[in-house]
Design brief:
With about 325 residues, the chain is of the alpha+beta class. It contains 13 helices and 8 strands.
C-alpha cells in the first residue's frame, strides 16, 4: 500500500529509524502504526545482536546520591559522536532518574524497569539498532550513613562512596576524588579475597627470588672482570660480540659463570629473608591498592584513613564503586 510522507515522519519520530525503514515498516504492516513499530523493533533487535561482540568504550557516566543511597551508572556506546548526541545524553539522564526513583537491587532489576512504553533493556536495544552501534548500561550502588558522588568533568569517570557516618560534603568528596584518581581495588586489606592475597604473595616471592639470583650472577660476573650489562640476555651477548665489545671466549666464559652462579644461588636462597621481603612487597600492594591505606592525594603526609580521622574521629569508608570508560 502507498504510505504518506507525514506517516513516515511520524513513525520516524516515534522510533528514530531511518526514513527507508519507516516506509518499509508501514508498507509491510498496511499502515498499522503499532505493527510498524513492532517491525522496526524486531529489525533493531537483530541489528543490536550482531554488535554484541563489539567494544563499547564511549558514553556517559553519572553518579548521584539521595539520602543513604548512592548510585553510579554508565550508558555505553562505541563512538564519541553517538555519546555526544542529545538523544543519547537524554536517555542516560532518564535512566538515572529511574534509578533514583526506584533504587533497583541490581542491574537486571534496572533493565526491567518501564521506560517509553517498554522497558530499559528494550529501549537500549532499539537505540542500538537505530544508531548502528553497540549500546549497554552498567549500574551499581552503595548505601551508608553518609554517601557522596563525584563526577569527573569529562563525564567518562565517576565514583560513589559510602561512609559509616556523615560529615561535610567537601570532606567526603575529597575521598570520592581519591577513588577516581587512584583506582583502589578495595576499601581495606580485609576486603581483598584470600585467593588474590595468595596470588600477590606468590608473585612477590618469585620476583624476590629472581632478584636475589640476578644479584648473585652480576656479582660473579664482576668478580671475573666481566661487565654484567654485556650479559643481560642471550641476544645482547650475540650483539655485543658482533660489535666487538666482548670476545667469543668471554661470551662463553660469561655464560658458564651465569649458569653456575644462578644454580648455586637458587639452591641456597635464605627462605626467611625471601618471605620477609615478599611480605613487605605484599604490604606495599595493600598501601597502593587499598583505599584507606593509600597516600592521600591532597596531603602526602597522611593516608586516606588518617585524613578521615582528622575530619571526624572514627569516620571511614564502608563501600565504593567506580566506573571509568577510559582505560586506567
Amino acid at each position: 500500500m502507498a504510505v504518506s510522507i507525514a506517516d513516515i515522519k511520524k513513525l520516524r519520530e516515534l522510533t528514530q529509524a531511518g526514513m527507508g525503514d519507516c516506509k518499509k515498516a508501514l508498507e509491510e504492516s498496511n499502515g498499522d502504526f503499532d505493527a510498524a513499530v513492532k517491525w522496526i523493533r524486531e529489525k533493531f533487535t537483530k541489528i543490536a545482536a550482531k554488535r554484541e561482540a563489539r567494544d563499547a568504550a564511549q558514553g556517559v557516566v553519572i553518579a548521584r546520591t539521595e539520602g543513604d543511597f548512592g548510585a553510579i551508572m554508565a550508558l555505553k556506546c562505541e563512538t564519541e559522536s553517538v555519546a555526544n548526541n542529545d538523544r543519547f545524553q537524554d536517555l542516560a539522564k532518564a535512566i538515572m532518574d529511574l534509578i533514583m526513583a526506584n533504587k533497583p537491587a541490581d542491574q537486571a532489576a534496572l533493565l526491567a524497569l518501564p521506560l517509553e512504553g517498554s522497558n530499559v533493556q528494550d529501549v537500549i536495544t532499539e537505540r542500538s539498532g537505530a544508531c548502528g552501534e553497540k549500546m549497554e548500561v552498567v549500574y551499581d550502588f552503595v548505601k551508608g550513613a553518609g554517601v557522596v558522588a563525584y563526577n569527573h568533568f569529562n563525564h567518562m569517570l565517576s565514583s560513589v562512596v559510602a561512609f559509616n557516618a556523615n560529615a561535610s560534603e567537601e570532606a567526603l568528596k575529597a575521598v570520592a576524588c581519591q577513588v577516581v584518581a587512584m583506582n583502589p581495588v578495595a576499601v581495606n586489606a580485609d576486603e581483598i579475597p584470600q585467593e588474590k592475597k595468595d596470588e600477590e604473595l606468590n608473585i612477590a616471592i618469585i620476583k624476590t627470588k629472581e632478584e636475589q639470583i640476578q644479584k648473585a650472577v652480576e656479582a660473579a660476573l664482576k668478580k671475573a672482570g666481566l661487565n654484567p650489562n654485556h650479559f643481560d640476555s642471550e641476544d645482547h651477548i650475540e650483539s655485543n660480540m658482533s660489535k666487538g665489545w666482548i670476545t667469543a671466549e668471554q661470551a662463553e666464559q660469561g655464560r658458564k659463570i651465569m649458569k653456575e652462579a644462578a644454580e648455586q644461588k637458587a639452591a641456597n636462597l635464605p627462605e626467611a629473608m625471601i618471605q620477609n621481603i615478599a611480605k613487605g612487597r605484599l604490604n606495599k600492594f595493600f598501601k597502593e591498592n587499598c583505599l584507606v591505606e593509600q597516600e592521600f592525594i591532597n596531603d602526602a603526609k597522611m593516608n586516606v584513613q588518617q585524613y578521615m580521622d582528622s575530619v571526624q574521629k572514627g569516620l571511614t569508608v564502608t563501600a565504593f564503586k567506580r566506573i571509568n570508560l577510559n582505560q586506567d
